Amino acid sequence: MGHYLISLDLSDKLCLVIGGGQVAERKVYSLIESGALVRVVGPELTPGLKDMVESGRILYRQGQYLPADLNNIFLVISATDNKEVNRQVAEDCASRNLLVNIVDTPEKCNFFVPAVVKRGGLSIAVSTSGRSPLLARKIREELETTYGLQYGEFLDLIADIRRDVINNVSDKNKKKEILENMVCDEVLDFLKSGRMDMVKERILSAYRSGRT
Known about the structure:
Pathway: Porphyrin-containing compound metabolism; siroheme biosynthesis; sirohydrochlorin from precorrin-2: step 1/1. Helix content is 48%, strand content 16%. The chain has eight helices and seven strands. It has helices at residues 22-33, 47-54, 83-95, 133-146, 150-168, 172-182, 185-192, 196-211; strands at residues 14-18, 37-42, 59-62, 75-78, 99-102, 115-119, 122-126. Strands 3-2-1-4-5 form a five-stranded parallel sheet, with helices on both faces. A two-stranded antiparallel sheet has the order 6-7. β2 (37-42), α2 and β3 form a beta-alpha-beta unit. α5 packs antiparallel against α6 (172-182), α5 runs parallel beside α8 (196-211) and α7 (185-192) runs antiparallel to α8. The relative contact order is 0.09.
């Protein structure tokens, strides 16, 4: 069966990472970047995780995983190399209907973390349903060369204009025309080549012509 791909809002959601190694550190960074509140449980921490604890960026309980660690948790990532701990975490999360990802053990996960390219408000995710994270990473690296930083700038540029068009243009056909012209092939060709001057000119032209 396929998976239902979604984009989670983790703002101020308490998430648990079990483990204190390099993999756990990468998972913690990605959660923090998404606005999550992060608690880490593990006997030892990497220097990077220690710095985050000392600076107050994450919460930390030193020791082995306990079922009580799941209290008030929204999402769980287990990043240990202990199969017994991972099995227990998966079972405990299943009994509580919690979102859980066991690193490198797809059969015990109910969600997978995709490889992601981020360009401002634009996110492009690549998922292999846990079957080959390496392939997902390779495809992500290709996408990073195709979609440069200008795509984030472009998204910021059209966001306010799009909102104004949706709120203030009553004619449905005219509204559709303006929105389509802002992301037409010509605009996207200029965007791909990094010609932001021409991108801005075409977007403003589409907006003005549609409003007159």
